[in-house]
From TrEMBL:
This is CRAL-TRIO domain-containing protein. Residues 29-111 form the CRAL-TRIO domain. Gene3D superfamilies: CRAL-TRIO lipid binding domain (3.40.525.10). CDD domains: SEC14. It holds the Pfam family CRAL_TRIO. It comes from viral metagenome. The lineage of its organism: unclassified sequences, metagenomes, organismal metagenomes.
Length: 151
């Protein structure tokens, strides 16, 4: 199983239009091609410019429900903020329970997060990827080899 980490606050570019969504979708397909995967979404330090539109969020969940449902094992939200909570609330009635049930919100300090994530099945030191500069990286790779994806 692969573990991907995304932090919009660390992104180079925000993807919030149809043309750039195609680019983002290609990275989702790459994750799917590698087999089962979990997406860690870190909301820490997000500001207004990092928030994507509700339309983008709905398109993302549509993509997940139509093309990623069998490969995506979970979306784990760490450092949740009001924008993320609102986004989850908006999409909850629109999508299958199978999609929404994959979302887990993990709260707490950094040490609590590491402990909670390890209890959820993350092996090894979670601090390796919690502090990375990259936006979407495969956990199994070293920082020098990491795939960097900005959105």
């Amino acid at each position: 199983m692969s573990l991907y980490y995304t932090s919009p606050a660390k992104s180079i570019e925000i993807i919030d239009n149809p043309e750039k969504f195609v680019y983002f979708k290609a990275h989702l397909e790459q994750a799917k091609a590698e087999g089962k995967w979990i997406w860690i979404f870190d909301c820490a330090e997000m500001r207004n410019e990092h928030f994507v539109s509700i339309d983008f969020t709905k398109n993302l969940f549509k993509e997940i429900s139509e093309n990623q449902l069998n490969s995506l094992m979970g979306i784990w939200v760490i450092h949740p903020n009001s924008w993320m909570r609102t986004s989850i609330s908006v999409v909850t009635p629109l999508f299958k329970k199978e999609v929404i049930s994959k979302i887990k919100v993990v709260e707490g300090t950094r040490l609590e997060l590491i402990s909670n994530l390890e209890k959820m099945g993350i092996a090894g030191p979670a601090s390796e990827w919690l502090g990375r500069e990259s936006v979407m990286v495969l956990k199994a790779q070293s920082q020098a080899q990491a795939k960097k994806v900005a959105f």
